[in-house]
Design a protein that fits this description.
The protein is mostly helical and 174 residues long. The chain contains 9 helices and no strands.
Length: 174
């Protein structure tokens, strides 16, 4: 059983960065930031996600009642690994729209990234896993770090089943 856990850990650690990068690249193209000028998110989309995310804060003032701006800011800060700032933005977004799945997802990622309030992180990710399959991937990482290999594998299999079939399937086949 110990050998199985070691093998599972090795596979998950090898695949996680590639799966997360694929998820983030897909998110950049689908954000529609250029259409959301009222929320302070207007800027020309860049082919390089890093440049696009770096340009985000300079996009202009943000309407404090625009929930989408807070979600986008949380997404950007999570991408930049600035998890405390991402948590603040995600909490603002959740405050404005309690049931928004993207806001809950970003809050879960931010909390997990800080490795605090892990139960709250898992709750937020579970809440949106049916709508955002990448939440299974985040839950898998969270359970793996806690040492719960069975739950980590279950979440990774759920991501493979409901997430990006082409991407996850190709990566897991390697």
């Amino acid at each position: 059983m110990t050998l199985f856990r070691f093998f599972l850990l090795a596979v998950l650690l090898r695949l996680y960065p590639a799966l997360l990068a694929e998820m983030r690249e897909g998110a950049v193209g689908s954000t529609g930031w250029s259409e959301e000028t009222r929320c302070g998110t207007a800027h020309p989309p860049a082919k390089d996600p890093g440049r696009s995310y770096d340009a985000f804060p300079a996009a202009g003032p943000v309407d404090p009642l625009c929930q989408r701006a807070y979600v986008n800011m949380a997404k950007v800060r999570n991408f930049q690994r600035r998890f405390a700032e991402a948590e603040r933005a995600a909490r603002q977004a959740v405050e404005l729209r309690k049931l928004d799945p993207q806001a809950r997802f970003e809050l879960g990622v931010a909390l997990a990234g800080q490795r605090r309030n892990l139960e709250e992180a898992a709750d937020n990710l579970r809440m949106v896993a049916a709508e955002i399959p990448e939440a299974h991937l985040e839950l898998s990482r969270l359970f793996l770090e806690e040492g719960n290999f069975e739950l980590a594998m279950r979440e990774l299999q759920a991501f493979r089943k409901f997430g990006s079939p082409a991407g996850a399937g190709q990566l897991l086949a390697k």
